[in-house]
Amino acid sequence: MARKVLIYGGYGGIGSTTAGVLKSRGYALHLVGRNQDRLAGAASDLGAGFSAGDVTDGGLFSRVSEDCGEPLDGLVYAVGTINLRVLQRLTEDDFLNDFRVNAMGGAISELHALPRLGTAEEMASLTAFLLSPEADWITGQIISVDGGRSTLRPKG
Fold first, then answer.
1. pLDDT of 76-88, one tens digit each?
2. Most confident among 88-97, 100-109, 118-127, 142-151 (mean pLDDT)
3. What is the reported pLDDT for 75?
4. Which residue spans within the chain are E strands per DSSP?
5. How many CA atoms lie within 13 A of 70 on its CB side?
């Protein structure tokens, strides 16, 4: 059975390129994005499922979970925004919108921690990737390889 990956921002530049690479490697995909027509076209091209909606809509995440089904093997949050206007022209709403869109990825990852311990082979796979030409543009990063556990908060 193909591993299933959920991609928020699935028809944008990074999201659609990631979707294409994953599809070529045999992954089953479910794409999420705002523009229904563009999303439907991208999903059709990739043989993927899709859900249309905006990440700033609080009801989107539960609907997407229902649409794509469980279990998921991975989640890609390729949604982001940046205001390139002069600082003096930015409004409070600009800052709040940027924060809501850009911080949402961390919040979503808390919902998808893997229910198992990792293996030495999984750690070695990341190391091999980071040393490969595919990772030439990655430098100075701390990458938690913990199945999402570092994002979980204790209850209480």
1. 888 888 888 898 9
2. 88-97
3. 86
4. 4-8, 28-33, 49-52, 74-77
5. 9
C-beta of residue 79 within 8 angstroms of C-beta of residue 55 = yes
Q: Domain for residue 156, yes or no?
A: no
Does 20 lie in the same domain as 90?
A: yes
User: What tokens were used for 149?
Assistant: 């556990």
Sign of CA dihedral 11, 57, 146, 141: positive
Based on the domain organization, do 61 and 138 belong to the same domain? no
By the 10 Å C-beta count (0-12 exposed, 13-18 middle, 19+ buried), 67 is classed as middle
pLDDT tens by residue, 1-42: 788 999 999 988 899 999 999 999 999 999 999 999 999 999
- What is the domain extent for residue 146? 118-151
Query: How many angstroms separate the CA atoms of 5 and 40, rounded?
Result: 17
Would residue 72 count as lying in a domain? yes
- From the list 82, 119, 114, the residue with the least C-alpha distance to 98 is 82
> In the numeric block, which tokens belong to residue 44?
């059709």
Establish if 87 belongs to a structural domain: yes
**pTM of the shown model:** 0.77
For 122, the token pair is 């999984």
